[in-house]
């Protein structure tokens, strides 16, 4: 009965939310468990029911991802042996080689999408998850949230993992290639990033930040 009255109150106030995909206005409603607010224009989920959930899973995943990213950048990914010459390659090795061959912009893009963007995204997710899970207000929460949303599409570490496998297939035509422990860490970072993005709930994070006074309530 109370939930029905709350829903009628929202309709009377005329509170609207924009669809995250097509920006069509949708009337905000009080949702029951299992219910979703669907955009009538593009069928995108605009809101979901928020139960007793937290950002603890993304917080743990982002922390694990950061540790694995550090190991991935300090451990060889593979060893390439051709005509008796052996070379251990790190994540930064390919970037340096691209720059040496004159492909500076491509090397910079690979560095940003494969190393910088994942580090920034996971760091922001960790910072936000830590603050919300513990109900704390460290400085810069709103800025960190904005940075996380901006960097999220550039986190292409899963694409980097696939590209590494393709490169190994090509290199095996020229010599002997052996996987090193760093490859497992790269794969781990890719999995942690994907899971963190899938499990994170932007609506829940925004609502929590509003309750904490970090973001203004509409």
Walkthrough of the structure:
This protein has helices at residues 2-13, 56-74, 91-100, 104-133, 141-151, 157-171, 181-199, 202-211; strands at residues 16-18, 25-27, 36-38, 45-48, 78-82, 85-89, 176-179. It is an alpha+beta fold. The strands form 3 sheets. The protein has a 3-stranded antiparallel sheet with strand order 6-5-7. A two-stranded antiparallel sheet has the order 1-2. The chain has a two-stranded antiparallel ribbon with strand order 3-4.
Which helices and strands, and how do they pair?
Elements (H helix, E strand, L loop, with lengths): L1 H12 L2 E3 L6 E3 L8 E3 L6 E4 L7 H19 L3 E5 L2 E5 L1 H10 L3 H30 L7 H11 L5 H15 L4 E4 L1 H19 L2 H10 L7
Antiparallel strand pairs: 1-2, 3-4, 5-6, 5-7
Helix pairs in contact: 2-4, 2-7, 3-4, 4-5, 6-7
Q: Notable features of this structure?
A:
8 helices; single chain; 218 residues; alpha+beta; two-stranded antiparallel sheet; three-stranded antiparallel β-sheet; 2 domains
